[in-house]
Request: fold
Amino acid sequence: MILIPIGTKAQLVKMAPVILAMKKQLVPFHFVLTGQHSETMNDLIIAFGLPQPDYTLVQVSEANTSLKLLKWLCIIVKRHLFINSEITKHHYQVCLVHGDTLSTLVCALIARRYKIKVAHIEAGLRSFNYFHPFPEELVRVIVSKMSQIHFYAGAWAGNNLKKYKNKKTIDIKYNTLIDSVKFALSQKAKDFKFNIPNKFVIVSIHRFENLSNPERLDFIIDQVLELQKKINVLFVLHPATREKLNTLKKASVLTDNGISLIPRLDYIDFLALLNKSVFIITDGGSNQEECAYLKKPCLLMRKVTERVEGLDDTVVLAKYDSTIISEFIHKYISNEENKLMPNGILDVDSPSDIIASYVKGIISE
Reply:
């Protein structure tokens, strides 16, 4: 039996095709939610046609503030590390953890606590700076040390894992997100409940490193306000972003200047919106990868990134440098040829199938 714990929306998007591949290959598994995120999770489960979770580790509301996240962390550690967990009722051979969230770290610790093999999906990504992004970079390094199996995408990530000589490493060539993108493009998006201008850009900011730094957040908001003078902006309200903007009374500043605040969308709808946009400004690593696969211009609002996808093409690292930001905006607003390109790099073998086949072999031993 395989344990697949998922905590955040981004994890669910990337692990959905893995769950579907496991189901198709008849690999027995339990799909479990950690409780870190709750908002839109069920919408994603329905959109991808996933089975309902077998159980949830912690039943709490959306951990969209630092205080709520700390509360969730304390509860999950207390209930599943220090006393007999629900996990002990089942005979799991492998725990598939994904990415660099606190759920990734906690579930790897829980698995090791109960002597379950840890397999890390999206292994080998590094920014080589513990503080950018924080705590994600630290989580990745710790989870790499705890994992017995690494599923990595491409030579660059694989090279970062060479020092773990006693680990099993499997190259899945591409991130599982490429399977999610292919799935989303094959589906029909719903009608949007907000007005979509003929020409617009998307802004999606949600990472701790941006929301927790007032000076940096003010800089980003100032850049977005300047951008609105040139083109319509649709600003995505992630739960943590909405909470921060409301607390700082910044939401009204954005709307008073004509910026549209839109809800966080399910994955299929978001890809459809990305399709229609001129470009996206984001701090999300998943968005970086999506744009690399789709050849969509992307301004990554971060100082460094642990990913290499798209950096030599249409993805630009902003580095909080107003000159870099200005040059990117000028280049792509003046370019009318920015369209989604759902071909080429999407026509590859499924990394999710590779993962499912490998773990199927483990439980057959």
About this structure: The chain has two domains: 2-173+349-364, 200-345.
